[in-house]
Amino acid sequence: MTNIGIQTAKYIMLVLILLYTLSTYHYLRMKTHKGRNQACGMQLFCMFALHLTGYLAIILYTGETAMIYFYLVQVAFFILYLVLFRIFYKKASRLLLNNTCMLLSVSFIMLTRLGAEGAVRHFIITAVAASIAMVVPLIVRQMRYLWRFGWIYAGIGIVALMAIFAFSTVKHGAYLSFDIGGLFSLQPSEFVKITFVFFVASMFQTSLSFKRVFVTTAVAALHVLILVASKDLGAALIYFIAYLLMLFVATRSYFYLVGGAAAGSIAAVLAYQVFGHVKVRVQVWQDPWMDATGDGWQVLQSLFAIGSGGFLGTGLYQGMPEKIPVVRSDFIFAGISEEMGGIFAIALILICLSCLLQFLWISTWMDGMFYKIIAFGLAAVYGAQVFLNIGGVIKFIPSTGITLPFVSHGGSSILSTFIMFGIIQGLYILKQDEVDRIEQEEKLERRRQALYAKRYETGTAGAGKPGERTRRNSPGRRAYKKSK
Hints:
- This protein is mainly alpha-helical.
- 75% of the residues lie in helices and 3% in strands.
- The chain is built from 18 helices and three strands.
- A three-stranded antiparallel sheet has the order 1-2-3, with helices on one face.
- Strand 2 (174-180) and strand 3 form a beta hairpin.
- Helix 9 runs antiparallel to helix 10 (233-251), helix 16 (369-393) packs antiparallel against helix 17 (411-457) and helix 17 packs across helix 18 (475-483).
């Protein structure tokens, strides 16, 4: 009976995430508020139904009634987050808001299946991060002079990255994070990537001269070199990709793009020669069977999990995702693919892609160079992170130790992603304010033109006294002709 329930839940969740994905791209096609509201309503229905189905399967298998309360607390969090965001930011992007909740619901389900204790900790971190990031759109909306603090952004980023040498401990062969009070760990590179984007946007806001590009490139290279020195090569790669793309968008110069790509290729070859763990990861990527019980174990277990899940998945608790090393963080996509299926995993990728498309659309929609580059830079960071994580899991590229935003376990990753999405929401709201102001001005102008037309037809346009005939070239007559 339990197995039947698990399998039924698997198919229901598959249908729900497919409907959610279709609604997401239907939203992107819609031009009217009514059509978008309908798509968002379907998204929320699918998200809450999938979340409920997943926890019913968990409760059915484990028999733990405490899971009911954990589920209800999560539902309360989702409702409170959605309602408060809509109250404080009526003009926010509902697509990004719904996608955030959908990705989090999948994360909660999978992490609970992998271990309730870790899932509770992850939920608490998520709730705190969401609360902190709630003020980010307000800051972006109200502070119109963020572009003036370029060197401050650079200073904060460099100092924070240097701090890991003084306070951090080696984890997976790299200096990644340091503990705060023994309660939680902080990974500076997750937050510095945001200040890094703001620094680059601030520098390109005022000038695109060769001197300015050279100075900006030097400071950006310093960020990357510090990360390379700490052996956090995954984060260094994200910074490099983001800067190269921002530079290209700002200057539209293929010289910088090709030159940067060539320099990056040379740096990759040098990293392969200098860093032993990089060489091992590349060799494992080429042939994981060369050390199947050692360094290749993680990649092989990931591929076995994805292959055993097939398109439809084995169902919750019917696979063995716990056999995959660091499955809760770097390789959670493999666990999802095994128990929820390849189709479910592809739908998850498409949801992440819709977030990226929304980032890029907001970038093209913004007028000022500073805001445009910020949106594009955050899109580059988000897109690179998703690509590097999933690409490493499926052995498309060597593993880089990057988390999957909003899905993987990790406090710094969750908070930084909330902040990134909050910044994008702030830019979206800022543009909506401008659009509303322009529409209001156009509405007033149409009323003014209608008034001139009415006065012209009654023969009072441009007259000093009521009933006086208008002159041939009066202001009212000229305005009327112009409107026609």
